[in-house]
Amino acid sequence: MDAPPAPRAPADGTRTRIVRAAAVLMQRQGYEATGIKRIAQDAGATLGSVYHFFPGGKKELAVEALRHGAQEFTDLLRTGLDSSDDPAEAVAECARLLARTLRDSDWTDGCPVAATALEFIGRSPAIQLASEEALGRWRELLAGKLGAAGISDEVARELACSVLSTLEGAELLCRVSASEEPLHIAGRHLARLIRSF
Amino acid sequence: MDAPPAPRAPADGTRTRIVRAAAVLMQRQGYEATGIKRIAQDAGATLGSVYHFFPGGKKELAVEALRHGAQEFTDLLRTGLDSSDDPAEAVAECARLLARTLRDSDWTDGCPVAATALEFIGRSPAIQLASEEALGRWRELLAGKLGAAGISDEVARELACSVLSTLEGAELLCRVSASEEPLHIAGRHLARLIRSF
DNA sequence: GTAGCACTAGAACGAACGTTCTATCAAGTA
DNA sequence: TACTTGATAGAACGTTCGTTCTAGTGCTAC
């Protein structure tokens, strides 16, 4: 048998493809608007495979997709933060990076948890917890950068919170208005705020 | 309030109840997770009434619900902004007001457009437009307050953008973590940022 | 009266949903 | 060979969805 890798199943594992497809779709349109059959189709998998890897069904897959998306967002944030020793400049770079990613993806690839999280406030502990963990990790990442620049722990933790709030909100504004402006403005204002401490 | 200027009889409690119920449900869990039958039930109306008043179906009702919720949020914002002549203090009061409203409603009554808007980025012009209009109105409201305090129009418009971004993002963090902290921190930081101009 | 209209009421429909089910394939083990 | 196990495949199930449809109510005007 002349055996090149099957065109149907690329090198990546089926499970990973399912998680990635779910993460992308949920990031774009939230949980409820995303059907399991569509996830399977986009992943090049079948329903049988989905339920084989995720016997807990859609909810279990959603939690995993949220974690996967959160990790990618963490990487993006880390890239921005590593761009400069000056935390103000580093945060501004995060805003620029986020704005570019958003525009290049037609305003779809933003925060991977926001849309889904808002659907489930007080309605699904598992999903709310996964969202909370992601936001908490990003906040600590930011606080670490600020603290490393000599800002006191207390101030750094609070600043990190506002930086995250502003980036999240500016991303919402960018996506709704299909414009990079809110994130660019946010970057400048956040840098100014950080430098004031 | 938006008294319907329609030539029809204003004795239309049912229509208003339907819009209000839809607004509440969509604010809490977004569009897709909100069923029309549930809306009718919560409004004390029937499906017949819903489709009588909204022949365009769920989408048409959603746009109206978004507008209704946006108006209520405008009122809340205006209340906060009117609380002080100092724009920094007024914005901080908005954050406090928002935090209290969130807590008192078990973290459900926040921005009425965020959840739904995120579901429809690039997928429904009508809903995206309604969301964009709401965010634009809030931004202008904030810019007006800042401009009235002597801040130049250009700076005021940009500041208003970041204030809105930060409040929106902080609200997301509050809801996910079931805590008032992000909004309280945001209020203090926004006041500091405004005073720096 | 009764004709007309705005509104209420909910049964019924087709489509889509998440899920379950059985069957099959491929590879490893004995 | 036969048996096991992880993974694939998709038909089928019951439910719920948004929507449509027909019937009925209450009110106003003639």
From TrEMBL, chains A, B:
- Gene3D superfamilies in the record: Tetracycline Repressor, domain 2
DNA-binding region ranges: 35-54
On the tree of life, the source organism's domain of life is Bacteria
Where the record annotates domain HTH tetR-type, the positions are 12-72
Asked if the keyword Transmembrane belongs to this entry, the reply reads no
Q: From the UniProt record, which GO molecular function terms apply?
A: DNA binding
List, alphabetically, the Pfam families matched: TetR_C_13_2 (PF21993), TetR_N (PF00440)
Q: List the keywords (alphabetical).
A: DNA-binding, Transcription, Transcription regulation
- InterPro entries, alphabetized: Homeodomain-like_sf (IPR009057), HTH_TetR (IPR001647), Tet_transcr_reg_TetR-rel_C_sf (IPR036271), YxaF_TetR_C (IPR054156)
Q: What PROSITE patterns does the annotation carry?
A: HTH_TETR_2 (PS50977)
**Protein name, per record:** TetR family transcriptional regulator
The organism of origin for this protein: Actinomadura litoris
